[in-house]
């Protein structure tokens, strides 16, 4: 299956939104079973400020649907979300 990189940037000042929805977000990652790698971006101060996820899905439509179902997205956390087809070369 193709891989997709989902690059999310949080809205400024929304760290509490991230924290309040983190458990639901992590549960979604585990329940859907399509996440190959995931982790937060960190600000210079070391605070979470976005996300990078690598998804194993059939196509871009499925990747968009998955991203829209993320509890973080539903909570309005993200300022931007970019989904890009990605090819693993190492790892």
Descriptive overview:
This protein is an alpha+beta fold. The protein has one domain: Dimeric alpha+beta barrel (Alpha-Beta Plaits, 2-Layer Sandwich), CATH 3.30.70. The chain contains 3 helices and 4 strands. It has helices at residues 15-32, 60-69, 71-74; strands at 3-10, 35-42, 48-56, 78-86. It has a 4-stranded antiparallel beta sheet with strand order 2-3-1-4, covered by helices on one side. A hairpin with a 5-residue loop joins strand 2 and strand 3 (48-56). The longest helix is centred in the N-terminal third of the chain and has 18 residues, at 15-32. It is globular. The protein starts with a strand and ends in a 5-residue tail after the last strand. The relative contact order is 0.34. The mean pLDDT is 97.
Short description:
The protein is an alpha+beta fold and 91 residues long. The protein has three helices and four strands; from the N terminus they run E-H-E-E-H-H-E. Strand 2 and strand 3 form a beta hairpin.
Key phrases:
91 residues, alpha+beta, Alpha-Beta Plaits, 4-stranded antiparallel beta sheet
């Amino acid at each position: 299956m193709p891989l997709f990189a989902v690059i999310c940037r949080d809205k400024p000042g929304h760290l509490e939104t991230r924290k309040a929805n983190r458990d639901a977000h992590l549960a979604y990652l585990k329940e859907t079973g399509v996440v190959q790698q995931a982790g937060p971006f960190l600000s210079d101060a070391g605070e979470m400020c976005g996300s990078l996820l690598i998804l194993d899905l059939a196509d871009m439509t499925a990747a968009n649907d998955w991203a829209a179902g993320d509890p973080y997205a539903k909570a309005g956390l993200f300022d931007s979300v970019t989904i890009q087809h990605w090819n693993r070369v190492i790892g």
